[in-house]
Write a structure and sequence with these properties.
The chain is elongated and about 55 Å long. The longest helix is centred in the first third of the chain and has 16 residues. The protein is built from six helices and eight strands, in the order H-E-H-E-E-E-H-E-H-E-H-E-E-H. 32% of the residues lie in helices and 29% in strands. Helix 2 packs across helix 6. The protein is α/β, with parallel strands linked by helices. It has two domains: 78 residues, D-Maltodextrin-Binding Protein, domain 2, CATH 3.40.190; 101 residues, D-Maltodextrin-Binding Protein, domain 2 (3-Layer(aba) Sandwich). Strand 1, helix 2 and strand 2 form a beta-alpha-beta unit.
């Protein structure tokens, strides 16, 4: 009986002396940004650092989704944090000049200069949705058009090849490129699956200031 009591006492003393698990007062918020909205992700991280919030970057059901333009059928809360221009862009040495809406539509439909190489994005991307709705108006992009994976690749192509024409958000326009048509000015949105609470709400308020 004494031996049993000794072991109980030893176990109690060991547990009392063990270091306590650190307690974090930081909240964790899952977030994601489409490639087009990537420039605003750094602002979100700045807001998180100021508020002692940890961001978990994941495309799986994020609490805050940053994107350019309003998606079709949006039914959850959204908050405008900025505005972005979507542009038709070329290399500065391209023979193309400023376009009208109809000329831009003809160009991307394959009714323009055949020496010009048309680049667009996958139809599921936010910037492509704005382009197709505003420029194409239900018409199809020329079948020979090539697909850029994201604005970074599109920017690299436009900077490297004077025969390329493509679509870029203004924040991604850089280097030896020039715009020849402003497709649309659209909101940059932070979308949440439900009404934001606590840390999520504070982050959104910071993004809007």
């Amino acid at each position: 009986m004494r031996r049993l009591s000794f072991f109980f006492l030893l176990a109690f003393l060991l547990s009392a002396c063990a270091p306590a698990e650190p307690v974090s007062d930081q909240s964790v918020v899952t977030v994601y940004a489409t490639p087009s909205a990537g420039p605003w992700l750094s602002e979100l991280y700045d807001c998180a650092n100021a508020a002692s919030v940890v961001l978990n970057l994941t495309p799986d059901a994020p609490q805050i989704l940053l994107r350019v333009g309003e998606p079709a059928g949006l039914s959850t809360p959204s908050f405008q944090i900025d505005t972005e221009d979507i542009l038709v862009v070329i290399h500065r040495l391209s023979p193309l000049q400023t376009l009208t809406l109809q000329q831009a539509r003809d160009l991307f439909a394959g009714r323009g200069d055949p020496s010009i190489q048309v680049w667009v994005y996958d139809g599921a991307t936010d910037v492509e949705s704005v382009f197709e709705k505003t420029i194409m108006g239900g018409q199809s992009v020329v079948s020979s058009a090539r697909l850029a994976s994201d604005p970074q690749q599109m920017s690299d192509l436009l900077n490297a090849d004077p025969t390329v024409v493509g679509v870029l958000p203004r924040h991604w326009k850089m280097g030896d490129t020039r715009e020849i048509f402003v497709i649309s000015s659209v909101p940059v949105l932070a979308i949440t699956p439900t009404e934001p609470q606590d840390a999520t709400r504070n982050l959104l308020a910071c993004l809007q200031t």
